Amino acid sequence: MDFKYSGENICKIGTDLLVVGMFKGDKFSGSVKGVNDALGDVLKTICGDEKFDGDLGKSVTVSSTFGKIGAKRVLLLGLGDKSRFSHDTVRKAGNLTAKKLKVASAHVTFGPEFNGGKGYIAALAEGVMLGAYGFDKYKTKNGAETEIENVLIISEDIKDRRFEEEISAAKAISESTCLARDMVNEPPVYMTPSKLADIASAVADEGGMRCEIFDLEEIKRRGMEGLSVVSSGSAEPPRFIHLTYEPHKKYKAALAVVGKGITFDSGGLCLKPADSMRTMKMDMAGAAAVLGIMKAIARLKPSVKVHGLISTCENMTGPAAYKPDDVIRAYNGKTIEVINTDAEGRIVLSDALSYAVNLKVDEIIDLATLTGACMVALGTYTAGLMGNNQKLIDRIKKAADRAGEKMWQLPMDEELRPEIKSDVADMKNVGSRWGGAITAAMFLENFVGDTDWAHIDIAGPAYNEKESSWSPKGGTGFGVRTLVSYIMDR
User: Fold this and answer.
1) C-beta of residue 228 within 8 angstroms of C-beta of residue 278
2) pLDDT digits (tens, 9 = 90+) for 249-286
């Protein structure tokens, strides 16, 4: 997809589709008025017929301009309240445009109202590229779809360098998000721990990063019993992955992003019902997000050292599968009583978080499809955010707001901590049904020591059962854009 800009008259540009935006309650001003006048009040008539008033996400289409302007067709998008116009408004506009028209238009032009200042070009480009995403590699193709090839953005007040920088950043972030989406959408017969490790190696090679991959023997030798034991019911061997991005110049800080990589979760001996098992290929979305983040920062080159850590395996029911009542010793020496084998993600993360502490980083941030309880509390579009440092949590929340990804802080209420107290070990891997997302985070807190740490439970927004207005069905790549924004601003 190629992006360019122009200061040319919007009505004279030859394009398959012209996209113009209107704020809620706007009485046809600016580029919308110019296009409407050139079309002989067609836009105004259609808006009246369809009761279009500029509400965010709503749209009307002129299917043919009959040669009255350079564009063949016109899409009028609602931008919502002008007082709330933001980067995310523009990102959503680009996303909706691509979703509606990726099979019909090769050349798309956006009006000047979409450029609201610094970062808006990047947000628009990001929205278009993410909206054009689709995963159909396993479908038999009956004919070639027409994809968006060229995007022209009308703007009179942008310089070449700024435009190129914003488009370059948007491509890095969008392509990395799409990598995470692809990985989550792959069938589990293909996306095994070994394959995930191969992708990590390729991402490292492409970005000039260091990559270490531990096989089962090395995992056991290092005392990562959480990962080795959870994997024991599967014929697929586990992998522990460590990617390192290091700036060429002196870095400001060092942090670790840690991802849960359960490539398929049957629940183990505490077997899931069939309906609950069906989408469990997505239980490695945290690991996919980590690889997306590392891919992006290798291109954007922040002055921060970043470690990407992934514990990846399957949770299956083979003859050697781990059992309720087992006791596991994690990488940092703490012991875990297994109450439920379907609470395996926190067990494999215990090793990765402990390993991160030994790297002497300033911050640890983990992403995991950890609990159904978080979905019950916040719904399927919002991630739960917890941790041991309020300033870190606040900075991540601000980055999420910039990226247009929804997160909400849940309270680490000390009164819930006894829920994971064990009679036979240092802790048990699950408490009662109450506050399950919080007690899961409290479990993880046992493995971060005194390091500043944040936990992002992405169980809901990592995977869509159906397409939403802003994101596709299947893997969403949630967390990539937030943490890339966070790291770049760090």
Assistant:
1) no
2) 899 999 999 999 999 999 999 999 999 999 999 999 99
pLDDT value of residue 102: 57
For the chain, the maximum distance between any two Cα atoms, rounded to a whole number of angstroms, is 80
CA distance 98 to 212: 38
Phi first, then psi: give them for residue 455, nearest 5 degrees: -120, 130
Q: How many residues does the chain have?
A: 490
Q: Which CATH class is domain 171-489?
A: alpha beta
Amino acid identity at 464: N
What does the mean pLDDT of the chain come to? 95
Q: CATH 3.40.220.10: which residues of the chain? A: 2-155
477, 289 in Cβ contact below 8 A? yes
CATH number of 2-155: 2.160.20.10, 3.30.70.1350, 2.40.30.40, 3.40.220.10? Answer: 3.40.220.10
How far is it, in rounded angstroms, from Cα 458 to Cα 370?
A: 7
φ, ψ of residue 434 in degrees (nearest 5): -85, 130
Query: For strand 407-409 and strand 474-475, is the pairing parallel, antiparallel, or unpaired?
Result: unpaired
- Residue for token digits 């069905």? 473
Sign, CA torsion 43/45/50/53: positive
Residue 82, φ and ψ in degrees, nearest 5: -65, -30
Active centre residues (catalytic): 272, 346
Residue type, 487: I
Reported pTM? 0.96
φ/ψ of 95, rounded to 5, equals -60, -50
CA atoms within 13 A on the CB side of 107: 11
Give me the residues paired with residue 260 across strands: 311
CATH 3.40.630.10 occupies which residues in the chain? Answer: 171-489
The answer to whether 369 touches 346, Cβ cutoff 8 Å, is no
Tally Cβ neighbours within 10 Å of residue 12.
10
* Closest residue by Cα to residue 370 from 449, 465, 262, 269: 262
At residue 340, φ and ψ (nearest 5 deg) are -140, 120
pLDDT at 116: 84
The full DSSP string for 328-362 is EE-TTS-EEE-S-TT--HHHHHHHHHHHHHHTT-S
pLDDT band of residue 468 (cuts 50, 70, 90) is confident
User: What is the token pair recorded at 441?
Assistant: 């985070």
Query: Rounded CA gap, 344 and 338, in Å?
Result: 9
Asked whether the predicted pLDDT for residue 145 surpasses 70, the reply is no
Contact 271, 317 (CB under 8 A): yes
Give the model's pLDDT for residue 111: 94
